[in-house]
Amino acid sequence: MRTGLAAHHDLAVLPLINTVIFPRAVTPLYVSREQSLRAVEAAASQDVNLLVVAQRDAEQETVGSDDLYEIGVEADIGRVLKMPDGHTSVLVQGVRRVRVVRYLQQEPYLVARVE
């Protein structure tokens, strides 16, 4: 890789409501949306990181690429626990800030190319 060029990679996206994750911070997240659960499960099963990014409107239930900010955090998944109430608890640790270059897919979960 030549210096001065950012490396791109593709990550499953976990939209966040009223939450911001910072690099190196360990944060528990509670996931209930089906699309978000699929993203977490895909990243965890492939042992890859996840993109956590805040959504613009906390009231929006169905989230697409236009509903998310351009800057997010690549996060390492520490553990995933299914809760008795049907939610899933995900412990993540921020790795680094990333910028979304573009979204590659919407279904069954969002995937973004980041740098």
Describe the structure.
- By secondary structure, the chain is mostly beta strands.
- The chain is 11% helix and 46% strand.
- The chain contains 1 helix and 6 strands, in the order E-E-H-E-E-E-E.
- It has one helix at residues 34-46, and strands at residues 9-16, 26-31, 50-54, 71-82, 88-105, 111-114.
- The protein has a 5-stranded mixed β-barrel.
- A hairpin with a 5-residue loop joins strand 5 and strand 6 (111-114).
- The longest helix has 13 residues, at 34-46.
The residue-averaged pLDDT reads 90
Radius of gyration: 13 Å
**How many DSSP E strands?**
6
Spatial order of strands in the largest sheet: 1-3-4-5-6
- Indicate the multimeric state: single chain
What is the makeup of the main sheet?
5 strands, mixed, barrel
Order of helices and strands: EEHEEEE
Low-confidence stretches: none
Shape category? globular
Total count of helical runs of at least 4 residues: 1
Strand residue percentage: over 45%
Q: Structural class, judged by helices and strands? A: mainly beta
Overall helicity:
10-25%
Cα distance, first to last residue? 14 Å
Helices, strands, pairings?
Elements: E1 9-16, E2 26-31, H1 34-46, E3 50-54, E4 71-82, E5 88-105, E6 111-114
Parallel strand pairs: 1-3
Antiparallel strand pairs: 1-6, 2-5, 3-4, 4-5, 5-6
